[in-house]
Amino acid sequence: MLEATTSFLGIHFLSDYAFYAAMILWGISGLLYLYPPESGISSNDKAEVVTSSMVDSTQANAIDDVRQHENTLLFIKFFVAGCLPMVICVLANYLT
User: Fold this and answer.
1) Where would I find the H helices in the chain?
2) Dihedral (Cα; 57, 63, 67, 69), 10-degree rounding
3) How far apart are alpha carbons 21 and 28 in whole angstroms?
4) pLDDT per residue over 23-51, tens digit each?
5) How far is the first Cα of the chain from the last one, in angstroms, to the nearest whole number?
6) Burial code of 76-89, b = ≥16 C-beta within 10 A, e = fewer?
7) What backbone phi and psi angles, to 5 degrees, belong to 12?
8) pLDDT band at residue 58 under the 50/70/90 scheme
9) For this UniProt entry, which segments traverse the membrane (predicted)?
10) Which pLDDT band holds residue 57 (cuts at 50, 70, 90)?
């Protein structure tokens, strides 16, 4: 609706909408894949290493594992969600 009234983006074809939607979804999924949650922080500072060895981090590691699993599932959902707009884009280009 905004595009039809203002022509702000300059998109005139259905295949363009589908292509940009797929690229946005796949871009988000790529960021989720490339930058997973950090599981631990390592340091060269002796005081930090000694302090971290005294702390029980099993619960924090369990939380990080859950976050990693949720991040992977969200990556897969965004990737699959981008497949339909890409199919629409390809079909719209071949059918017109």
Assistant:
1) 2-6, 14-34, 46-54, 58-95
2) 100
3) 11
4) 999 999 998 888 877 655 666 778 777 77
5) 23
6) eebbeebeebbebb
7) -120, -10
8) confident
9) 17-35, 74-95
10) confident
What are the Cα distances from residue 87, in Å, to 28, 44, 49, 83, 95? 18, 49, 51, 6, 12
Q: Which amino acid does the sequence have at 80?
A: V
Determine the angle formed by the axes of helices 14-34 and 58-95, rounding to 10 degrees.
160
Q: Tell me: the pLDDT tens digits for 76-90?
A: 999 999 999 999 989
> Which pair of structure tokens corresponds to residue 1?
């609706």
Residue 47 tokens, joined: 């005081």
Q: What angle do CA 83, 88, 92 make, to 5 degrees?
A: 150
Higher pLDDT, 63 or 24: 24
